[in-house]
Design goal:
Structural class: alpha+beta
Distance between the termini: 21 Å
Strand content: 5-15%
Strand order of the largest sheet: 2-1-3-5-4
Helix content: 40-55%
Shape: globular
Largest sheet: 5 strands, antiparallel
Order of helices and strands: HHHHHHHEEEHEEH
Radius of gyration: 18 Å
Number of helices: 9
Number of strands: 5
Length: 203
């Protein structure tokens, strides 16, 4: 099951800001939640298992996928030819909801998933509502014309400051993004020691 509790609490527990609101809270309280969270050394020495588990949870939260999907992706990444880490990142980063987030049209992965579910996105000019849909090289994701009047998308376009990752070609004029190529781990803006995640599921 995906985590459905308070995102600020989850962010503080993982030491990873998942939403803009979490960024503000973590600046004031840069320690885990709970009565012992502010204790010195609380994030100190960890066992190997806890370190592996924490990295798995961090990756899990950043992509907002279920445990079943995580296991499926890791299994495929290990079996496929090539580097398992790059394989895993390619499967995550080609998801429609993730590419919507990377393009800047959604502020969080949670919002991106909702926008896709509500039918605001086109892929190659065809309407889709499956967040886990994997795009291929040269596929184009576009905000549906009627949806461009919504405040959430207008605000997203107005606030676009950062450039998208190199593997995306974003066109603000067309409200679209094109997947240029499959990314490698070093190009993906994710905070996680991915090899530890693969080791966790390989036990």
């Amino acid at each position: 099951m995906k985590y459905t509790g308070p995102k600020v609490k989850l962010s503080r527990r993982l030491n990873l800001p998942l939403t803009p609101k979490a960024v503000k809270f973590m600046q004031r309280k840069p320690y885990p939640p709970g009565m012992h969270g502010n204790r010195k050394g609380f994030r100190g020495k960890m066992s190997d298992y806890k370190r592996h588990l924490l990295e798995k949870q961090r990756l899990h939260a950043q992509y907002n996928v279920s445990e079943r999907q995580m296991r499926k992706y890791v299994k495929k990444a290990v079996r496929a030819s090539g580097n398992p880490v790059d394989n895993l990142m390619r499967m995550f980063e080609t998801r429609l909801d993730v590419l919507l987030l990377r393009s800047g049209y959604a502020g969080t992965i949670y919002a991106a998933r909702q926008y896709v579910n509500h039918g605001h996105i086109l892929v190659n000019d065809r309407w889709v509502n499956i967040p886990s849909l994997h795009l291929k090289e040269n596929d184009v994701m576009t905000i549906k014309p009627k949806s461009r009047r919504l405040p959430c998308f207008i605000m997203a376009v107005e606030e676009m400051i950062n450039l998208p990752p190199a593997y995306l070609d974003r066109s603000i004029e067309d409200w679209s993004s094109k997947l240029l190529y499959f990314p490698k781990r070093e190009e993906v803006p994710v905070s996680c020691d991915v090899p530890l995640v693969i080791e966790y599921y390989s036990r």
